[in-house]
Amino acid sequence: QVQLVESGGGLVQAGGSLRLSCVASGRTFSRYAMGWFRQAPGKEREFIAAISWRPNSTDYADSVKGRFTISRDNAKNTVYLQMNSLKPEDAAIYYCGTNPTLYGLRRIRSDYWGQGTQVTVSS
Predict the structure, then answer these.
(1) Alpha helices, DSSP H, located in 11-111
(2) For the residues of 26-50, what is the DSSP string, one character each?
(3) Do residues 105 and 50 make contact, with C-beta atoms less than 8 angstroms apart?
(4) Portion of the chain with pLDDT greater than 90, in percent
(5) Residues of the chain where predicted confidence (pLDDT) is lower than 50
(6) What is the pLDDT, as a whole number, of residue 55?
């Protein structure tokens, strides 16, 4: 059974930082791109960032470029999202996902979804 489990969310003041983690189990994702998405109340899920399995190419939404960094540890089947300079508009439930390609993740196509982790940013 494939599972994606996100963690690391919480409450942070504007300008602060958080690091999200997503651990994948049930299969090896080392040859799949992995990505992060978010969904705020009343809004559609949006693409945030993605990383290929090799050679670690990355893709970011314009809204987070320069503030967020995605990375992965294939040995741990884990993808991370370092979020700096957080803004109130970054508040949402953050999800990780996986797809064979960055292209698919950019189009919010994931083979699996986790339960998400809540990020709240106070102004």
Answers:
(1) 102-106
(2) SS--TTSEEEEEEE-TTS--EEEEE
(3) yes
(4) 83
(5) none
(6) 62
